[in-house]
């Protein structure tokens, strides 16, 4: 079974052509800035599972002439299709493999296609057993580039905490799907999960518990640095979110001076939203503004990427006037760090957003109430939009007909028109959601997983996979043709995209997920092996 998820722009597998064989003579020949690092990341995985040496050698150096068993890694101008950032080509056959891009990031994406074309055993942690037919790659010619620049996975580590090792595994798996952003929802009512040196109680009193009292946790700065570095090796940017001014009970619990009445509320272990708020009153302005400057300043220091997410959603306990005042102060403190800010679409209520502020849309595929206007407000103010429509892209929505019984026996929520099928997650078109948003206004697409009902790693994997692959394909793969869009099937049947083809490629991906030990949901309709 051959196929790549997300679907490339073009992929040809010439019938009858001899495959490439990776063996104990294979070398990784590199040329161009950054190629060696990408080859080393690939080698670190492939050495474990194959047991081969796979030396990284500079192409053209002494003895560095490509042989038929070699994989060539090229970074050079003019290699990416149409010069699109992160674009690449992959050629394989009995003469060798050649991966090429204009950028190291594009070359890394090429390695993730190669990873999927190799036997699934490539994912194993040791070389104890080898694939029966050897380490073959079908003869292939792939030209590829992403549709959207921002392709994200959001992990809520506030409602339930997930340790560093779990986050690193998650990063490796989203990289396999060519996602390039990990958005960490680091703070919420139930917990504050990132150390801030200037406000240490945030991760003492503020991190002691989680939903249901399932235990606390937080990332030290060293933990966070490991996450950022591991992600960077996979060309994944970490976007930290501190959710403000609502969703702040953990901070209000840790610091009485942030509360209007000066009294710290109890820690919160429930699943309600919209009851907490920073205090807008002048009496608390000094503490609140110092908090904002310190927290966002330290967060920016820990963040090599360009974005800081400041939340802004569901501030139902904040009056409209206070919300606008606090958003002005939050975004001023955020912009002072030099980062570009991202906020949930409610923040579009402000007409004083810093230049370039990105709105993250979380309403439904068909916008309700004022969600569309709030979202276009970001574009009107010179920013762009990330789309995370909750009824198709929220990975915490239940799947239908849980295998173990009726809905309700497995983790997940229903509020966003759930349950959500794999085909619904696959059957939407980013330009067809918020009227007035053009392709160029859309920075990208993100699939959040909220963890009120998800307390363990197997449950997390069950909810995330395989639907995240559907969202990854919407984010990466070419837009359906105008004809396909015009005659699209209902979104429940996959919309304008070819569901059967997706299912077949997903089954191939499933063999890799199995080898990785991912406890994914074996959704009906997919020919899983
Ligand atoms: C809505 S939509 C939330 C989160 C919840 C999630 C549960 C949005 C930006 N916020 O606070 O965790 O629903 O599905």
From TrEMBL:
<keyword id="KW-0378">Hydrolase</keyword>
<dbReference type="Pfam" id="PF02838">
    <property type="entry name" value="Glyco_hydro_20b"/>
</dbReference>
<protein>
    <recommendedName>
        <fullName>beta-N-acetylhexosaminidase</fullName>
        <ecNumber>3.2.1.52</ecNumber>
    </recommendedName>
</protein>
<feature type="domain" description="Beta-hexosaminidase bacterial type N-terminal">
    <location>
        <begin position="3"/>
        <end position="145"/>
    </location>
</feature>
<dbReference type="InterPro" id="IPR029018">
    <property type="entry name" value="Hex-like_dom2"/>
</dbReference>
<dbReference type="Pfam" id="PF00728">
    <property type="entry name" value="Glyco_hydro_20"/>
</dbReference>
<dbReference type="InterPro" id="IPR015883">
    <property type="entry name" value="Glyco_hydro_20_cat"/>
</dbReference>
<dbReference type="InterPro" id="IPR017853">
    <property type="entry name" value="GH"/>
</dbReference>
<dbReference type="InterPro" id="IPR015882">
    <property type="entry name" value="HEX_bac_N"/>
</dbReference>
<keyword id="KW-0326">Glycosidase</keyword>
<feature type="domain" description="Glycoside hydrolase family 20 catalytic">
    <location>
        <begin position="328"/>
        <end position="478"/>
    </location>
</feature>
<comment type="similarity">
    <text>Belongs to the glycosyl hydrolase 20 family.</text>
</comment>
<feature type="domain" description="Glycoside hydrolase family 20 catalytic">
    <location>
        <begin position="148"/>
        <end position="315"/>
    </location>
</feature>
<dbReference type="InterPro" id="IPR025705">
    <property type="entry name" value="Beta_hexosaminidase_sua/sub"/>
</dbReference>
């Amino acid at each position: 079974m051959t196929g790549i998820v997300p679907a490339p722009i073009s992929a040809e597998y010439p019938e009858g052509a001899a495959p490439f064989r990776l063996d104990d003579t294979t070398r990784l020949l590199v040329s161009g800035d950054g190629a060696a690092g990408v080859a080393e990341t690939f080698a670190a995985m492939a050495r474990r599972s194959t047991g081969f040496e796979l030396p990284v050698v500079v192409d053209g150096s002494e003895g560095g002439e490509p042989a038929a068993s070699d994989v060539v890694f090229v970074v050079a101008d003019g290699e990416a299709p149409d010069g699109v950032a992160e674009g690449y080509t992959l050629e394989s056959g009995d003469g060798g493999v050649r991966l090429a891009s204009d950028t190291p990031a594009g070359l890394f994406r090429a390695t993730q296609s190669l990873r999927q074309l190799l036997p699934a055993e490539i994912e194993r942690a040791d070389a104890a057993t080898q694939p029966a037919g050897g380490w073959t790659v079908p003869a292939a010619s792939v030209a590829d580039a992403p549709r959207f620049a921002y392709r994200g996975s959001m992990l809520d580590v506030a409602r339930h905490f997930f340790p560093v090792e779990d986050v690193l595994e998650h990063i490796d798996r989203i990289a396999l799907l060519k996602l390039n952003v990990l958005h960490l929802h680091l703070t919420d009512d139930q917990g504050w999960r990132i150390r801030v040196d200037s406000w240490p109680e945030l991760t003492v009193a503020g991190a002691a518990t989680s939903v249901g009292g399932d235990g606390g946790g937080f990332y030290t700065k060293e933990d966070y640095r490991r996450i950022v570095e591991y992600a960077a090796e996979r060309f994944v940017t970490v976007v930290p979110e501190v959710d403000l001014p609502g969703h702040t009970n953990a901070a209000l619990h840790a610091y009485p001076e942030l509360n209007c009445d000066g009294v710290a509320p109890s820690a919160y272990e429930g699943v309600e939203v919209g009851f907490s708020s920073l205090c807008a009153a002048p009496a608390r302005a000094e503490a609140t503004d110092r908090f904002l400057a310190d927290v966002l300043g330290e967060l920016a220091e820990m963040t090599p990427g360009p974005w800081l997410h400041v939340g802004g959603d569901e501030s139902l306990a904040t009056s409209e006037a206070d919300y606008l005042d606090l958003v002005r102060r939050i975004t001023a403190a955020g912009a002072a760090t030099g980062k570009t800010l991202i906020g949930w679409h409610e923040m579009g209520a402000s007409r004083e957003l810093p230049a370039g502020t990105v709105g993250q849309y979380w309403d439904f595929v068909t916008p309700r109430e004022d969600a569309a206007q709030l979202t276009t407000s970001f574009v009107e103010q010179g920013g762009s939009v990330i789309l995370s429509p909750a009824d198709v892209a929220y990975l915490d929505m239940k799947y239908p007909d849980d295998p173990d019984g009726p809905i309700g026996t497995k983790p997940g929520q229903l509020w966003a028109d759930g349950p959500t099928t794999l085909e619904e997650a696959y059957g939407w078109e980013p330009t067809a959601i918020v009227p007035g948003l053009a392709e160029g206004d859309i920075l990208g697409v993100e699939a959040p997983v909220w963890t009120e009902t998800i307390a363990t790693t197997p449950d997390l994997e069950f909810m995330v996979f395989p639907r995240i692959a559907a969202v990854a394909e919407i984010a990466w793969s070419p837009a359906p043709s105008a004809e396909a869009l015009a005659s699209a099937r209902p979104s429940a049947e996959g919309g304008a995209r070819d569901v059967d083809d997706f299912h077949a490629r997903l089954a191939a991906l499933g063999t890799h997920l199995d080898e990785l030990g991912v406890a994914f949901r074996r959704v009906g309709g997919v020919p899983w092996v």
